[in-house]
């Protein structure tokens, strides 16, 4: 299976990809553009999404709302990465379907623990595809 990281900052994307690679042997795809990431999600069922909140053209919340409209993504874990500490953002994100949060700068141990909690999780749609 494959994890999608949606992050427009190349340095942050590289850090997230390297940290994820220490937790899982799943393929990891990085995309910087939300619109292209949505297209990818229409064509590929990713096992997990790691989404930056601040993206050019759309927010991470807008991306997640669009993803949750695709029923095959109902159970796919979505981790939001944000520097925003506002509790209202977290409430809104949770209501939108975010299953976990990472605060920037990302703490390596917290990231690995959060990812490890979801790695190996197989939503019904993924299990049926096998």
From TrEMBL:
Coiled-coil intervals, chain numbering: none
Source organism superkingdom: Bacteria
Annotated Pfam families: Response_reg (PF00072)
Location of 4-aspartylphosphate modifications: 52
Gene3D superfamilies: 3.40.50.2300
InterPro entries recorded: Bact_response_regulator (IPR050595), CheY-like_superfamily (IPR011006), Sig_transdc_resp-reg_receiver (IPR001789)
Signal peptide: none
Residue intervals of the Response regulatory domain: 2-119
Record has Nucleus as a keyword: no
Sorted UniProt keywords: Phosphoprotein, Transcription, Transcription regulation
Protein name: Response regulator
Annotated organism of origin: Ciceribacter sichuanensis
């Amino acid at each position: 299976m494959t994890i999608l990281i949606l992050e427009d900052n190349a340095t942050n994307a590289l850090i997230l990809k390297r940290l994820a690679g220490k937790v899982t042997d799943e393929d990891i795809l990085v995309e910087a553009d939300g619109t292209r990431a949505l297209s990818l999600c229409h064509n590929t069922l990713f096992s997990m999404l790691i989404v930056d909140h601040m993206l050019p053209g759309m927010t991470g919340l807008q991306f997640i709302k669009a993803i949750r409209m695709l029923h095959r993504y109902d159970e796919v874990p979505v981790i939001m990465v944000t520097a925003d500490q506002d509790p209202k953002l977290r409430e809104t994100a949770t209501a939108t379907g975010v299953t976990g949060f990472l605060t920037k700068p990302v703490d390596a141990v917290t990231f690995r623990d959060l990812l490890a909690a979801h790695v190996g999780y197989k939503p019904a749609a993924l299990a049926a595809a096998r």
